[in-house]
Amino acid sequence: MDPEGSAISKKVEDFLNVFRKGEEFTQELLKENEKLRFKIAQLETRPQPSHREDGGQVNSLAEKIRLLEEENSALLDKFRLVEEENKDFANRYVEVEAENNNLANLYVASYQLHSTLDFSESLKIILEIVMNLIGAEEFSIVMLDEKTNELSIVAQEGMGPEARSGIRLGQGIIGTAAKTGEAYYRQGDPTELSGVDYDHPLICIPLKIKEHVIGAIVIYKLLIQKPELTGVDYELFSMLAGHAATALFSSQLYSHSERKLTTIQSFLDLLKDKKSSSS
What we know:
The chain has helices spanning 3-44, 61-113, 119-134, 172-180, 231-278, and strands at residues 136-145, 150-157, 166-168, 184-185, 203-209, 212-222.
């Protein structure tokens, strides 16, 4: 592995270790919280000696049974309340853990995106992110040609041969999203359609550098184990769009500059050869 790749891997591992330590600490806090709550419930519902108004102790067996039943009922109610609170804390912990895992995954993915200036490699990384983090089954990445104002597919996953090869800027759902820079999400159940309609995607996320749109991520179908989008997915879309746009734009500029340098160098070599032969 090259030194740069090793440095990136170390940074990623250090970042993930922070999440793991936070997860372990949170689990310990939840366990201690549960113990303390049950202890408080026991203390609050501990039987207290009962007295009559005249100060005499209650000696009636029936009265004692009634008081014990009331105390037992209060204790059960308190335990149920504590159990519900603990369930609520556990659910919140699961949500936070899921979001932290997604953020960790996105952190790793962003390192991967910005670790290369090769356009094809950048596309491959974006495909893996959309498939693994978002859970998309059929999707494509389209790029805008500013000379023709047309969007064309530069990478895709799971799409059939009937997929459109070019879309005019401002045309249809995809073209409109790219022109306005506004993300599109299809309303209703994403699994309700019997087949994939490439004119009506499920999601279209413009790839923007500030307000300049360079392309879009277009999703037509989610994996069967992911019937709907979650709140975290929308955050991931927003963050991914910026990272992907920057990575693709940078790699395109680098590729163009490399080609120009190669052309210039070839031209200089040709002039040098002609000069040599003439002398």
